[in-house]
Design goal:
Layout lengths: L10 H4 L30 E2 L3 E6 L4 E6 L9 H16 L5 E6 L11 H4 L4 H19 L4 E6 L3 E2 L1 H8 L2 E5 L6 E2 L11 H11 L1 H10 L5 H7 L4 E3 L4 H13 L3 H21 L1 H12 L2 H17 L2
Helix pairs in contact: 2-4, 4-5, 4-11, 6-7, 6-10
The chain binds (2E)-Hexenoyl-CoA.
Length: 305
């Protein structure tokens, strides 16, 4: 399937992309988890790893990642996220999406390191295309996207949050956010660097990217990486209030303005997607990089418990 941004998607998702979704009809299926009342807001659809709670009345869908234990961005999760976003985007009932986690304490642990270690170039190519696709799909979305960050948000988690229009982070000192790639011995691609610069400025990005800084909530707010820090139990309600503020603006004017602000950054990647993939694949295939990633993954495993 060639998606809006021109990328071909993994063959296994392409055969029947909608088969990844349990219920492709809005407003059908099971009742909402947590009981939140009747009406359209209580209907769910989604896929194995992405739960979507649409509220047709308000035009907002809450999209929850559920890839336990830490919502690492496996190829499957990336694919399901893109498909779910596309589905909501194509349904004119919706004007906004809140992205959040269904896994306790973690928004997303970022790229799935098992996808980056010990695989072959064809796999890395497919995987990186999916990473690019998710970023393009979120960054260029005509919907209002609000990140309700209810857990740790390193690396790829931060990438998703950065692509949103607004970020609300839970006030828990353990919930760090940032691009820590250098600590794994890898580098951030130029288009994510650009997004960082667009969000927190050049000097702060230069420092944070080189140091692989992960910011606790108060510092993330101070540097402008998030827009609000609120008590954990208020993350979703605050995200909904933020959403209402953004949706109060006429869509066409807001969308044109968003495009005007983001197009140059996205175009830089769109112009050189293949080169970016080749770059990534040759980088990740290096013995030294594979070794660093394996050491990092092993440390993560040992840290456990
Ligand atoms: C190229 C440039 C762009 C982007 C790059 C990236 O995103 S690179 C990504 C950079 N990301 C990071 O640097 C974040 C690394 N992760 C963390 O810092 C922490 O896991 C946490 C703070 C997210 C959650 O803490 P917590 O105490 O709640 O959880 P826990 O730590 O006990 O882990 C539970 C299980 O999950 C496993 N696992 C964890 N992460 C990953 C992963 N990304 N992948 C795969 N697996 C992962 C972990 O090994 C363990 O597995 P086990 O032993 O059960 O088989």
């Amino acid at each position: 399937m060639a998606l809006a941004s021109g990328v071909r998607f993994p063959a296994r998702a392409l055969l029947r992309p909608w088969s990844l979704l349990r219920d492709t009809t809005l407003g059908r299926s099971e009742p909402a988890a947590g009981g939140g009342g009747g009406g359209d807001g209580a209907r769910l659809f989604g896929s194995q790893r992405v739960l979507v709670e649409p509220d047709a009345a308000s035009g907002v869908a809450v999209m929850k990642f559920r890839n336990p234990p830490v919502n690492s961005l496996s190829l499957e999760l990336l694919t399901e996220l893109v498909i779910s976003l596309e589905k909501v985007e194509n349904d004119k009932t919706f004007r906004g999406v809140i992205l959040t986690s269904a896994c306790p304490r973690v928004f997303s642990a970022g790229l799935d390191l098992t996808e980056l270690c010990g695989r072959n170039p064809a796999h890395y190519t497919e995987y990186w295309k999916a990473v690019q696709e998710l970023w393009l799909r979120t960054y260029l979305s005509s919907l209002v996207l609000v990140a309700a960050i209810n857990g740790a948000c390193p690396a790829g988690g931060c990438i998703i949050a950065l692509a949103c229009d607004c970020r609300v982070l839970a006030d828990n000192p353990k919930y760090h956010i940032g691009l820590n790639e250098t600590l794994l011995g890898i580098t951030t691609p130029f288009w994510l660097k650009d997004t960082y610069v667009n969000t927190i400025g050049h000097r702060a990005s230069e420092q944070a990217l080189q140091l692989g800084s992960l910011f606790p909530p108060s510092e993330a707010l101070q540097v402008g990486l998030v827009d609000q820090v609120v008590p954990e139990d208020q993350v979703l309600s605050t995200a909904l209030s933020e959403m209402a503020r953004w949706l109060a603006v006429p869509d066409h004017a807001r969308q044109l303005t968003k495009t005007m602000m983001r197009k140059a950054t996205a175009d830089r990647l769109l112009r050189q997607r293949d080169a970016d993939i080749q770059n990534f694949v040759s980088f990740i295939c290096r013995d030294s990089i594979q070794k660093s990633l394996q050491v990092y993954l092993e440390k993560l495993r040992q840290r456990k418990g």
